Amino acid sequence: MLNVALDTHLDTFHLAVDFQVEQGKTLVLLGESGAGKSTVLRLLAGLLYPEKGHISLDGVVYFDSEQRTAITPQQRPFGYVFQDYVLFPHLTVFENVAFGLRAQRVARHIVQQRVMEALEQVHMADLAQRRPAQLSGGQQQRVAIARALVLQPELLLLDEPLAALDVQTRREVRQELRRLLTETGITTVLVTHHYLEALLFGERILVLDHGRVIQQGDQYALREYPRSSYIAELVGVNFFRGHITRYEANALCIVQLNDGKQPVEVVAVLRERGQSNGTPSPGDEAFVVVDPRSITLYLAPPESSARNAFYGEIIHILPSRTAANGDSSVRVSIMLNDAAPPITAEITGASASRLDLQEGKMVYATFKATEASAYT
Q1: Residues 9/16, Cβ–Cβ less than 8 Å
Q2: Kindly report the CA angle at 8 between 5 and 14, in degrees rounded to 5?
Q3: What pLDDT, in 10s, does the model give residues 158-178?
Q4: What is the dihedral of CA 76, 77, 83, 84, to 10 degrees?
Q5: Structural domain for 277, as ranges
Q6: What is the pTM of this model?
Q7: Which pLDDT score is estimated for 303?
Q8: Are residues 90 and 216 in the same domain?
Q9: Residue 259 belongs to domain with CATH number
Q10: For the chain, what is the domain count?
């Protein structure tokens, strides 16, 4: 088990995180640039030391501010794969992978054996005598991983391991890296800002924002219960934050999104999930998510039974996707008022053409209460 508690300042940036990773599992640190993800890795590796905190792996303490324990980076059995790989250009693939073992003065015949085993793991044994400049980006990434694995680490730290690859290569290497992590069974902390990679690699996902953990959980929790606009955008749903004002029958609640002069209210189904015990009370903070595909647009006041009907200005129209049958869809963002966040609808390209939608046009957006999920 990896146990981590970190609290430190880097100039004006304050990082404070606390998490655990089960042995042999992968934790993904997800967040935008500047969230503090790579800083966490550097603190784990010992390249930086926090002002306060604790780092231990399987009962061995590598940092503890109270006990004044601070094990140096070279003494930590951790493998680190940097975002830009940091391969030595003048050394061959074999020599790059062997570098750490030779620095530890490991016997030559053991170096030979372990390096070739590591290269076999990443399917690079036949390119052992090439230099980095002779390799593709995907091949260089494999060498960087082999260099970390050859040290037989107890913890693997991966900093945006696929970021430097083109789309096609990233797709290929992604599956291979997942296979490696499964086969080796090494406890891993992986940093990414790609939601798909977080879903693919992370048994558990920790979302960072400005040095703080804003959400953590498994894939289901992030997808069904986002707690920030950042996660909701990655998942692809509308996200609103407000306060419960009252309840209705059939588990319906009314959530007011803002307290300004133009309050916006959403009627939603309260889901059985909460951080507090029992049913939330009026005045409690609540989150609401709505699938963009559940929203219907009209040019005139709609004759609809939908409980949620809003009027606003189109501020953005973006192509969304094209189905296998050739049908296209667009995402239309509508500003309700200055105090509420915009709402996004996903409609077919044919509907957008029929309505002659354009930025600046006023439209009605509706969705049923049963299509909106509220939770605390």
Answers
A1: no
A2: 110
A3: 999 888 787 778 887 888 888
A4: 90
A5: 239-289
A6: 0.83
A7: 87
A8: yes
A9: 2.40.50
A10: 3
